[in-house]
């Protein structure tokens, strides 16, 4: 297996030998401010309460929020970096709860090498200070996570799983095979953890957890149409086993039946909204009663549908951050080239066929107060690091989610998907100083969070280089 993996890496570097030169810009730098920071007279959205705390002084020192107080007395001005917070709001840095850091966002018919460091910058540039990777080689993502931790790369904190558990030739195998060139595609079946029978559950999970994951992801869907699907019995046995080992499970679902089965089997999080069929009120009740949060990934479905119809036009933020070589092949009529890819085309057509259910299903769940979490599935064709998250906020708003639910779904609620007591996702003394300073009140005007005045990551001010 080790030999296979090294061979895989060598082949990967030879075959996908596109250079990274199209990532010409640097998006952000760390400021060199050494002193503790004080935000004076600032309002606070703490991530969980729908009312702002008004007119506070927030002291950030050694990477954490040290004090929140009425009137912090500064003995010596030179010892602090003071920021006037009057009329502004501090909120927790945001969380993208569904990313794939090993994806470039490029279409399979263009050879584009992923620049993970660039993508991590792009997330932080958009105010995202934490990402949850939901599928990639665990060893690669762990490596990235460590580089961020040791500040070799500037980016959000990375939590991760491994390649999701699926069945033979089930999703994501057909799509991954298409993205990879020969002979790499012959390795896909070896690398993806697959399972067919309940008897193999224990061995599968033991092996999976050796990858040092933060949580487990299981595929319970049919992509493209007709692809093999996992049985309920196997899904349930897998989730039971993972819970026994003390981990949480993200389940990738598609149809209403998938979603109902997943919550009945004990899923902790649904990794997508319900898109592959029309949800009934009864099914929506079951999902709501389970209290399982849903990472809707609305923008991903909206963009896939648009590409498939030859009607995808990037948002201004996409154009600013995503290299042209990645956007051009999906823009306007170019997107119709997806027809040349068998599995991808079948999947995209399925998304288009079922597009009408997306809003219908969302509304049924929203009315029942299902917790919606912000995530993007970036970077895949149509989803891009950072910029798609800002589009997701607009999409959730357009679908009727309140500003508070969007903000909590991108911060506090997202921070508690798999951690009992996360040190991020809220603003409280002792929590990580991952903060956004917003000009105004984002609870009243959600659009303001797209252009934070200041981004702070682990207590360090991040300067954007483009504006
Ligand atoms: Zn995904």
Write a short abstract of this structure.
With 467 residues, the protein is of the alpha/beta class.
What is the CATH-assigned architecture of the largest domain? Alpha-Beta Barrel
- Major sheet description: 9 strands, mixed
Mean pLDDT, to the nearest integer, reads 93
CATH class descriptor name of the largest domain: Alpha Beta
State the helical fraction: 25-40%
Distance between the termini: 48 Å
Q: Which ligands does the model contain, each kind named once?
A: zinc ion
CATH topology group of the largest domain: TIM Barrel
Portion in strands? 15-25%
The helix/strand class is alpha/beta
Number of strands: 17
Q: What is the domain total for the residues?
A: 2
Notable characteristics:
single chain, 467 residues, alpha/beta, TIM Barrel, Urease, subunit C, domain 1, nine-stranded mixed beta sheet, three-stranded parallel beta sheet, 17 helices, 17% strand, binds zinc ion
Notes on the protein architecture:
- This protein has 467 residues and is α/β, with parallel strands linked by helices.
- It has helices spanning 2-15, 116-125, 138-149, 173-179, 188-191, 201-209, 232-244, 256-264, 281-290, 298-308, 316-321, 324-327, 342-353, 355-367, 387-398, 403-409, 412-415, and strands at residues 28-30, 37-44, 53-61, 64-69, 81-84, 89-92, 94-99, 128-133, 157-160, 216-220, 249-253, 269-270, 294-295, 372-373, 435-438, 454-457, 460-464.
- Helix 6 (201-209) crosses helix 7 (232-244) and helix 10 crosses helix 13.
- The longest helix is centred in the N-terminal third of the chain and has 14 residues, at 2-15.
- 51% of the residues are buried.
- The site of zinc ion has 5 residues, from loops.
């Amino acid at each position: 297996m080790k030999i296979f993996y090294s061979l895989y890496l060598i082949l990967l570097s030879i075959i996908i030998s596109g250079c990274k030169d199209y990532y010409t810009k640097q998006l952000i730098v760390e400021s060199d401010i050494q002193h503790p920071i004080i935000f004076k007279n600032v309002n606070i959205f703490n991530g969980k309460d729908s009312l702002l705390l008004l007119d506070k002084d927030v002291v950030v020192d050694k990477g954490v929020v040290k004090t929140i107080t009425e009137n912090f007395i500064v003995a010596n001005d030179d010892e602090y970096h003071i920021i006037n917070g009057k009329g502004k709001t501090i909120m927790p840095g945001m969380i993208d709860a569904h990313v794939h850091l090993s994806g470039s966002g490029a279409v399979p018919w263009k050879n584009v090498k992923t620049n993970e460091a660039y993508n991590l910058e792009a997330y932080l540039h958009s105010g995202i200070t934490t990402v949850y990777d939901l599928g990639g080689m665990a060893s690669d993502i762990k490596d990235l996570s460590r580089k961020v931790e040791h500040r070799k790369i500037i980016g959000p904190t990375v939590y991760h799983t491994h390649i999701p558990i699926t069945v033979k030739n089930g999703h994501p195998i057909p799509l991954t095979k298409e993205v990879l060139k020969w002979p790499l595609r012959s390795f896909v079946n070896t690398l993806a953890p697959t399972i067919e029978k309940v008897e193999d559950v224990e061995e599968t999970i033991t092996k999976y957890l050796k990858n040092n994951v933060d949580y487990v992801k299981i595929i319970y869907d049919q992509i493209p149409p007709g692809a093999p699907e996992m049985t309920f019995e196997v899904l349930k046995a897998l989730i039971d086993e993972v819970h026994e080992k003390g981990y949480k499970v993200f389940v990738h679902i598609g149809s209403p039946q998938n979603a109902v089965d997943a919550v009945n089997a004990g899923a902790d999080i649904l990794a997508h909204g319900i898109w592959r069929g029309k949800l009934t009120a009864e099914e929506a009740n079951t999902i709501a009663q389970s209290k399982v949060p849903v990472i809707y990934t609305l923008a991903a479905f909206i963009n896939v549908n648009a590409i498939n119809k030859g009607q995808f036009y990037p948002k201004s933020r996409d154009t600013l951050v995503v290299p042209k070589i990645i956007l051009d092949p999906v823009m306007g009529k170019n997107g119709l080239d997806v027809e040349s890819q068998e599995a991808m085309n079948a999947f995209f057509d399925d998304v288009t066929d079922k597009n009408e259910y997306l809003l219908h299903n969302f509304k049924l769940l929203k009315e029942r107060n299902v917790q919606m979490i912000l995530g993007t599935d970036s970077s895949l064709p149509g989803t891009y690091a950072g910029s798609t998250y800002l589009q997701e906020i607009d999409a959730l708003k357009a679908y009727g989610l309140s500003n508070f639910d969007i903000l909590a779904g991108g911060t506090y609620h997202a921070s508690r998907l798999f951690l009992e007591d996360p040190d991020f996702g809220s603003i409280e003394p002792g929590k990580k100083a991952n903060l956004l300073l917003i000009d105004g009140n984002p609870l009243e005007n959600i659009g303001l969070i797209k252009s934070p005045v200041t981004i702070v990551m682990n207590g360090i001010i991040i300067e954007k280089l483009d504006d």
